[in-house]
Amino acid sequence: MVAELAGVRPTKRCLNDLEVELPDLGVRLEEIDRPIIVSAQAVPEQRDAGGAERVVALTDRVWFKVKTSDQRAVVTELRDADLPDGVHPSRGAWWIGGAGRRQADSAQRDFYVALQRECTTGRTVSSAHLLPTEWDWKRLAAEQAVAWRREMKRMVIRLVAMSLKSGQLAVAEFLNHRIKALVKADNGHEAYLAIIAEGVPDPQVFALLLDCVPGVRPDEWQPEPSPLAEMNPASGEIIWSTLFSPKIADAILDLDGED
Questions:
Q1: pLDDT digits over 150-187, tens only?
Q2: Contact 248, 215 (CB under 8 A)
Q3: pLDDT bucket at 90, cuts 50 / 70 / 90
Q4: What CA–CA distance (Å, rounded) separates 154 from 162?
Q5: For 134, phi and psi rounded to 5 degrees?
Q6: Sign of CA dihedral 147, 90, 44, 76
């Protein structure tokens, strides 16, 4: 499961500037449907092509202008030294630091002029307060966790559905681990299901895997080997098994068919 690359994310400061209501964690902030946020997604490509316009008054770091009909914003790219530990550049490099409106009738109230005043004290220019804060990094991590959980559930349902249809072991291969599902079904009766993880040492991750099977309570799973199937885990494997009804099997097939 590979997470999509992050786009140009608005900071909390930017969302406040735009008076945008915070969406739930299933929505990535860069996907918010506001013209200035949508336009900002083109800045990295524009910069690489030499077409992005700098905010020349902000001299402490490179900021680029974003313009729509009457909205304005500033975008910057963070380098490795700017990123918190554990944040990969592909997931948190580009940010919209602030936004406002173009004031054609008043140069003093124009967004870029006001931003220059905000960032200037005497001869010192500092735009550090426009960079993402702890809130922004926590929000990014929470979005990633929700997306990972959603992708993991989709993967588990797909594996169980594949095994339901074929009666064979279904396997998902990753770089350092494997996830497997095995269903033994008897028409009209309860089916046996085993979820097998190879190379997944974290018990919390395995618990999440089991929780991805709809209709099965946590206390309905049991570790193997057990009298249920008498499966013996191989070296590095963890196996938990359960019984589930034809109704749950139908629900799993329906969910798999929705993708």
A1: 999 999 999 999 999 998 999 999 878 889 999 987 76
A2: yes
A3: confident
A4: 12
A5: -60, -40
A6: positive
* 92, two tokens: 């948190």
Predicted confidence (pLDDT) per residue in 119-159, tens digit: 999 999 999 999 999 999 999 999 999 998 999 999 999 99
Region of residue 191 (phi > 0: left; psi between -120 and 50: alpha; otherwise: beta): beta
Angle between helices 134-166 and 203-211 (to 10 degrees): 60
pLDDT more than 70, % of the chain: 92
pLDDT band at 31 (very low <50, low <70, confident <90, very high): very high
Q: Where are the domains of the chain?
A: 9-132, 147-257
Contact between 238 and 206 (Cβ < 8 Å): yes
* Residue of 80, 99, 103 lying closest to 91 (CA atoms): 80
Q: Where are the alpha helices (DSSP H) in 88-133?
A: 89-92, 111-118
Q: Where are the beta strands (DSSP E) in the chain?
A: 9-10, 64-67, 71-77, 94-101, 120-121, 124-125, 170-173, 178-184, 191-198, 222-223, 237-244
**What phi and psi, each to the nearest 5 degrees, are found at residue 221?**
-95, 145
